[in-house]
Write a structure and sequence with these properties.
By secondary structure, the chain is of the alpha/beta class. Helix content is about 45%, strand content about 10%. Bound molecules: ribulose-1,5-diphosphate. Ribulose-1,5-diphosphate (RUB) binds next to helix 6 and strand 6.
Length: about 325
Amino acid sequence: MTTEEPAVAPAVAETAADIAAMRTRGAATIADAVAEALATQARVSEADGVEAFRAELRAAAQRLYETRPTAVSLPNALRYVLRGIDGETVTALRTATIDRAEQFQADLAQAQSRLGEIGANRLRDGDVVMTHCHSTDALACIESALADGKAIEAIVKETRPRKQGHITASDLREWGVPVTLIVDNAARRYLDDADHVLVGADAITADGSVINKIGTSGLAVMARERGVPVMVAAQTIKLHPDTMTGHSVEIELRDEREVLTESESVEILGGEDDPEFSVANPAFDVTPPRHVDAIVTEHGQFPPESIVTLMRDLFGEPTGRPWEP
Ligand code: RUB
């Protein structure tokens, strides 16, 4: 073994392959798997010195990171675990790594319900909430409000093109929440009946911008115009520390068939190729902080402009690559 190519445990390679193939998906699930993989690397390491051990951990982190570098929870999990691992011997480093990973996993398991309790405090008995897409963090706030005995109603946007609003409606009906499902274009009309807009996030940037399902930013602008507060529910694994140094967040462009089926395309173009016709299908958009009232995390609720302080507390100054000191 050379120091340039340290051993990566087979279990780490397997986890990396599962994430790359999206067999392991979802912000929290990816973060948990990554922490587990680092702990495994530490457990099975046969490194004969402190430097060799650290090199193995870095190699494992890099292997995991390169699977889906745009999934923000992945580098965050690496940062949480790798930050502050100290020890003079391999045994001490091994124990420290495993402890950090276990602590991270335990915190993660609690984060969504804690966030839900905090978010629920913003909801009053009898409130009507408008939702967009399907966010388990946003739903945790409603679930906790219901557990507190509050009556909540929901106006659920269907959320074209994939209609994840249907999943939200189904979850809410299971909990007995009265639901009105609307098409996205009806949002402004129904905002008059809503007390809150409640959405999740895919990522939160250092200036407090919220990256979430396409349509969130338009909804937030309309809510501001109507005086309806916008609440974003996001565990801290969604915070994007690289944006502290000016990195921008890549917006995924998805298949045009999500928007237009083959037969609809034939209806428009008569089955002809048309180089001047295209379909654009961005998955997410960016809601600027001035249109967001509160970001609710498991560490409390924050005005978007102050989220950078929490980001710095949790992740330190960004290094670009999570395994670099
Ligand atoms: C889902 C979406 C959700 C966030 C938050 O988009 O935009 O609001 O991912 O979800 P997609 P959660 O369906 O394209 O993944 O709170 O469950 O992490």
